[in-house]
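Quick one, probably user error.
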């Protein structure tokens, strides 16, 4: 394709994941000239069946499904905990929604007020009511299936656009145990079609949602990239931005990007929107340092890259003395937010319920997993047996697994950050991102508390618990948040409530990088809502 720049346009968007795609579509629909620069390639939809084959065959690595890895995607991790950055990101048209799980929840009202309510971290400069209309629009754009039956969720004005998926068989196994303990189960909003929607089919049950949906029933941002192009936007793939160049007035004048032929170009625009994620956005701002911006662009506060925040996985599982139909559904259909805002609460069940806790804890959500055991292929590959002996062992080991999972929100810490590793470079000679990451004691306590609740439910169900993921062996959910945080004070934040950087008047950020606190819910719906909000503010300035 022709990757030369357009003449000066209204808006240049960097990144073609959900944030960039939604912003570009909204702005193009309103008549603005938009160019989107995406570092990765455009994946043909027809390649998804082949990518599914790669996902389920052990000869292929997880990174190979969406062509991640190598010099282009090099990074460092110098913190207390190693951070496996490439394990769950995609560079390309559609971004990480090409392989995401597809769960989409609205942040709770309390998530915007952690300082006021809990005395920790900081409050957001906006509240749930500010995002409420954008949440509703985002649900319509993505095509969210849900039952609106979560009694702990924030208020909404309308039902979800699509009906919820039926609970899985393993959900029904949990239901009686949860009822006895006074634990409330409810449906999970999913950005996948429970019936035909937006010219995409209903889910056909491939079960490989993460890392690839061959049918397209699960939403991915290439949907809105195509809509943006239909509305007149121009999308250039394989065009990694090397730096943002400012003029004498302190405004961004151009995005300098590279192309596969070895050339570099400058895309000029009136407004620029960064939508390339919580790691690449601070990296780009830090790489854009100049005489006028010696510490990096939009970094007068020194907070670009700071407060890198994650969600931590917690879970437990084992064997049940009956068949559980594991792995027959590729996504989660039931959760529990009962302990989200009150993680220490007790429940009153006929068997004693969940015991309470007086510890200082953060938000948590609990998930009822229906694909929680090893696959027969994995078991066979690691076995020392053959023939009938192997078949007998597989029958004993497969089909009775059941588990719970969950997410815990990490307390934002200034020392967790994204910086540049100048000792290592990518395929264009740029310093790679370096991740410094560690966990605080409050987050560890919350994970331990989540395990306590999970064990109580599993034991009530009669599960022989064989494994637990707790504070000592937890891992990230790969939700990169907080590295260009939002606020009203330019000394304590990078962007203002309109998502525009304090330092640069024509530079905005649409990303989870603006999150002040992470909550404990999957962030994509909030990313989408913020992106639509950002686009509205850019539209107002234009």
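Nope, works fine. Designed sequence:
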């Amino acid at each position: 394709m022709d990757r030369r720049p357009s003449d000066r346009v209204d808006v240049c968007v960097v990144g073609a994941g959900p944030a960039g795609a939604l912003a570009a579509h909204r702005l193009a629909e309103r008549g603005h000239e938009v160019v989107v620069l995406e570092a990765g390639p455009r994946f043909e939809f027809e390649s998804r069946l082949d990518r599914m084959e790669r996902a389920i065959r052990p000869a292929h690595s997880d990174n190979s499904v969406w062509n991640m890895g190598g010099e282009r995607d090099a990074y460092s991790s110098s913190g207390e905990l190693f951070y496996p950055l490439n394990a769950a990101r995609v560079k390309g048209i559609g971004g990480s929604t090409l392989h995401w799980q597809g769960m989409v929840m609205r942040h709770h009202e309390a998530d915007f007020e952690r300082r006021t309510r809990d005395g920790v971290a900081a409050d957001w400069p906006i509240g749930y009511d500010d995002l409420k209309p954008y949440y509703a629009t985002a649900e319509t754009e993505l095509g969210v299936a849900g039952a609106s039956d979560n009694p702990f969720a924030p208020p909404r004005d309308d039902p979800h656009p699509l009906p919820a998926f039926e609970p899985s068989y393993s959900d029904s196994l949990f239901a009686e145990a949860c009822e006895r303990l006074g634990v409330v189960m409810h449906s999970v909003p999913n950005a996948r079609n429970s019936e035909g929607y937006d010219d995409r089919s209903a889910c056909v049950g491939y079960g490989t949602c993460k890392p690839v949906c061959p049918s397209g029933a699960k939403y991915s941002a290439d949907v809105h990239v195509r809509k943006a192009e239909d509305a007149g936007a121009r999308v250039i793939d394989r065009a990694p931005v090397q730096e943002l160049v400012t003029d004498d007035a302190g405004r961004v004048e151009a995005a300098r990007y590279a192309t596969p032929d070895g050339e570099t170009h400058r895309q000029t625009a009136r407004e620029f929107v960064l939508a390339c994620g919580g790691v690449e956005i601070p990296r780009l701002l830090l790489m854009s340092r100049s005489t006028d911006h010696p510490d990096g662009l939009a970094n007068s506060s020194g907070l670009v890259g700071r407060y890198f925040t994650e969600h931590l996985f917690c879970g437990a599982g084992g064997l049940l003395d009956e068949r559980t139909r594991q792995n027959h559904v590729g996504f989660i259909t039931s959760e529990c937010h009962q302990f989200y805002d009150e993680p220490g609460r007790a429940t009153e069940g006929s068997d004693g319920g969940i015991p309470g806790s007086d510890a200082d804890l953060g938000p948590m959500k609990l998930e009822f997993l229906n694909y929680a055991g090893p696959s027969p292929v994995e078991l066979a590959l690691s076995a020392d047996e053959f023939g009938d002996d192997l078949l007998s062992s597989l029958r004993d080991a497969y089909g009775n697994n059941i588990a719970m999972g969950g997410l815990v929100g990490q307390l934002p810490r200034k020392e967790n950050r994204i910086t540049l590793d100048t000792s290592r470079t990518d395929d264009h000679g740029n310093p790679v991102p370096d991740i410094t990451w560690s966990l605080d004691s409050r987050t560890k306590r919350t994970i331990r508390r989540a395990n306590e609740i999970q064990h109580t439910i599993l034991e009530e169900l009669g599960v022989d618990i064989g494994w637990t993921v707790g504070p000592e062996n937890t891992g990230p959910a790969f939700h990169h948040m907080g590295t260009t945080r939002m606020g009203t004070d330019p000394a304590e934040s990078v962007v203002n409530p309109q998502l525009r950087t304090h330092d640069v008047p024509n530079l905005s950020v649409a990303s989870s990088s603006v999150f002040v606190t992470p909550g404990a819910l999957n962030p994509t719906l909030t990313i989408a809502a913020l992106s639509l909000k950002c686009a509205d503010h850019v539209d107002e300035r234009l």
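The mean pLDDT is 95.
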